[in-house]
Amino acid sequence: MLINGASRTAIWPDPNGEGVVILDQTRLPHVVAEVLLRDLADAARAIKDMLVRGAPLIGVTAAYGVALAMRADPSDAALGRAVEVLRATRPTAVNLAWALQRIGGFLQPMPEDLRRDAAFAFAKHLADKDIACNAAIGEHGLALIRAAAEKRGGAPVRILTHCNAGWLATVDWGTATAPVYKAQAAGIPLHVFVDETRPRNQGASLTAFELGQQRVPHTLIVDNAGGHLMQHGEIDLCIAGADRIAANGDVCNKIGTYLKALAAQDNDVPFYVAAPVSTLDPALAEGRQIPIEERAQEEVTFMPGLAANGEVISVRIAPQGTPARNPGFDVTPARLVSGIITEKGVVAASREALAGLA
Ligand code: MRU
């Protein structure tokens, strides 16, 4: 997708062979900064401190992290350590464990002297696969938007999305945004309502940024506005991403997703989830088994932003000493999900339908 008219991906191998390059998402939309990851510690820090975030991108970054570790030391011990260090960075998105399991299982039986090059090639393969999956999700989601457009009789299809399940959360295209970009390319008029997504404001900072760069018409709303818009017939469908989907179709995504799904059901607005098959966790029977990341209180009591002098600063918004809770994700029960848009097609959020994808 585009930044300032130039085609970009969210992660790429450094052309000089020095490592892997990412965009520092903690500085967007104010500063577009590239960061070179040179070793395992850099990759782990980038995930933990959320320079990269979003389930698919975390997985691909972790795979590159293993490759960086193999460059320094291709031994069994180093491979095991790299996998453990990266796995411990964030608990909720299953794509992280999925990618580590894939690359670890690929490298483990291999002679040590072949691991370095093979690891980079495998990480690149996962990145390319992510792009292809998201493009396919886009095509399947396009059919849903096309159907909504027919009902709208030429007026823009109004889509609500939560957090950033855009190209910055993946390698390219995004999951929830891929159908939007495909619909835009197909000439379907649409308008995206972007939840700000407190506390880290991924909607305001990242989704609004990427839609703006792509020239997709959009409006930023506070997290509490979605229900009101749905009650007034101003949303045609919701599309959210996912960090982990349990075997029964319960969907874990950024905190606040559940409330949007409840409001959608109460107002007969279809609520879709867009995610690659790698986001399914068939080992977990139900959503309540999904580990929910608890993040720092300061993300709630402080707010970052651009000061008048051009500096990015953090300001306190609660009284000193106010305690805060900060669960990063919530679980939307399968009964509230109209369908899951995967690279293999749109399927019901049910045990039977999801078992067919494995
Ligand atoms: O905490 P984050 O920013 O990593 O959370 C991201 C989300 O919840 C996304 O909606 C999800 O990962 C889907 S990404 C295509």
Task: Characterise this structure.
With 358 residues, the protein is of the alpha/beta class. 39% of the residues lie in helices and 19% in strands. It has 11 helices and 18 strands. It has helices at residues 40-48, 55-72, 76-87, 94-107, 112-152, 178-185, 202-213, 226-231, 257-266, 298-301, 351-355; strands at residues 2-3, 6-7, 11-13, 20-23, 34-37, 157-161, 190-195, 218-221, 237-240, 244-246, 251-254, 271-274, 280-281, 302-306, 312-316, 329-332, 339-342, 345-347. A 7-stranded mixed sheet has the order 8-7-6-9-12-17-18. A hairpin with a 4-residue loop joins strand 10 and strand 11 (251-254). The radius of gyration is 20 Å and the shape is globular. The model has no long low-confidence stretch (mean pLDDT 98). Residues 53-56, 93, 163, 165, 169-170, 174-175, 202, 241-243, 253-254, 328 line the site of 5-S-methyl-1-O-phosphono-5-thio-D-ribulose.
Task: Write out key terms for the chains shown.
18 strands, seven-stranded mixed β-sheet, about 350 residues, binds 5-S-methyl-1-O-phosphono-5-thio-D-ribulose, four-stranded mixed β-sheet
Number of strands: 18
Shape: globular
* Helix count, DSSP H or I runs of 4 or more residues: 11
Strand residues, percent: 15-25%
Distance between the termini: 29 Å
Question: What is the rounded Rg?
Answer: 20 Å
Q: What compounds are bound to the protein?
A: 5-S-methyl-1-O-phosphono-5-thio-D-ribulose
Poorly predicted regions are: none
Helix content: 25-40%
Structural class: alpha/beta
Mean pLDDT: 98
The side-by-side strand order for the widest beta sheet comes to 8-7-6-9-12-17-18
Q: Give a quick account of the main beta sheet: strands, pairing sense, barrel closure.
A: 7 strands, mixed
Question: Order of helices and strands, N to C?
Answer: EEEEEHHHHHEHEHEHEEEHEEHEEEEEH
